[in-house]
Design goal:
This protein is α+β, with helices and mostly antiparallel strands. The protein contains 4 helices and 14 strands. 26% of the residues lie in helices and 24% in strands. Strands 1-3-4 form a 3-stranded antiparallel β-sheet, sandwiched between helices. Strands 2-11-10 form a 3-stranded antiparallel β-sheet, with no helix packed on it.
């Protein structure tokens, strides 16, 4: 069953989303080059716990010991923070962070371009972000989840990229992973009918090469099957009567034309 959030529950989710957006605003002000991914993890944990008086929802989930996933270059998702893994000029790194406040969870990620990355690298990151917004633009009461996935997949393919199919978005609220699964591909007019009050993540992972992925021996880290780059963006959204509300929208973040609130 897909939970439908009440007005009061949406208000609490909105607050969790606002706080999580402030975590990314803090990271935006930090020069990531030269930091280890474990140092970034520890910085985020202190900020969530001490400054925001909230809980990092990923820590302890499925026995995961950290507050974020840090996925560099060819890592698609679920990268594990490591003191020996240093972020370097020219890297791209996706930071995927969750936060719980007052019993409700928000989930968001952003791929950072660190320093002087190549034009091809920047293009991948741009298209991945655009693909997320193409999916979000389809969200409204009466639409279908297939509309969301089809828009994401179509945009990536138009630019010569592949969308990962092994992982997807998900419902979210009191639990980090609720129904439904939100695929990043699909057929328009198919899938779950969207209703006002549904909340879920839209989080495409876009690869330069093959959509195939492999998982490292640590059981967490997922990489592209051909070693080429991957980029991801994610927001938590709510279905409204007239369109969509992006609950994790960051201050100053531009909402593309076509996204109806």
């Amino acid at each position: 069953m897909i939970p439908i959030k009440t007005t009061a529950e949406l208000a609490l989710m909105r607050e969790s989303g606002r706080l999580l957006a402030s975590v990314f605003a803090m990271l935006d002000r930090r020069p990531l080059a030269g930091m280890s991914t474990l140092a970034v993890n520890d910085l985020v944990e202190r900020y969530i716990v001490d400054e925001l008086e909230a809980r990092p929802a990923s820590k302890g989930q499925y026995d995961f010991a950290y507050v974020l996933n840090s996925s560099i270059n060819q890592v698609v998702c679920h990268g594990v923070p490591d003191a020996a893994q240093v972020i370097r000029d020219g890297d791209i790194v996706n930071l995927d962070i969750t936060l719980e406040k007052n019993g409700f969870i928000a989930d968001s990620s952003k791929t950072y371009v660190v320093g002087e990355a190549s034009a091809a690298t920047r293009r991948l990151v741009r298209v991945a972000q655009e693909a997320m917004w193409k999916g979000i633009a389809q969200v409204r009461a009466g639409a279908r989840l297939g509309d969301v996935g089809a828009a994401i997949d179509r945009h990536a393919k138009q630019h010569g990229y592949a969308v990962v199919r092994d992982f997807c978005g998900h419902g979210i609220g009191r639990e980090m992973h609720e129904a439904p699964e939100v695929l990043n591909y699909g057929r328009p007019g198919s899938g779950v009918l969207l209703r006002e009050g549904m909340t879920f993540t839209v989080e495409p992972m876009v690869n330069q090469g093959t959509r195939r992925t492999v998982t490292r021996d640590d059981g967490w880290t997922v990489e592209t099957g051909d070693g080429k780059l991957s980029a991801q963006f994610e927001h938590t959204v709510a279905v409204t009567a007239t369109g969509v509300e992006v609950l994790t929208l960051r201050e100053g973040e531009a909402v593309p034309r076509g996204v109806r609130g």
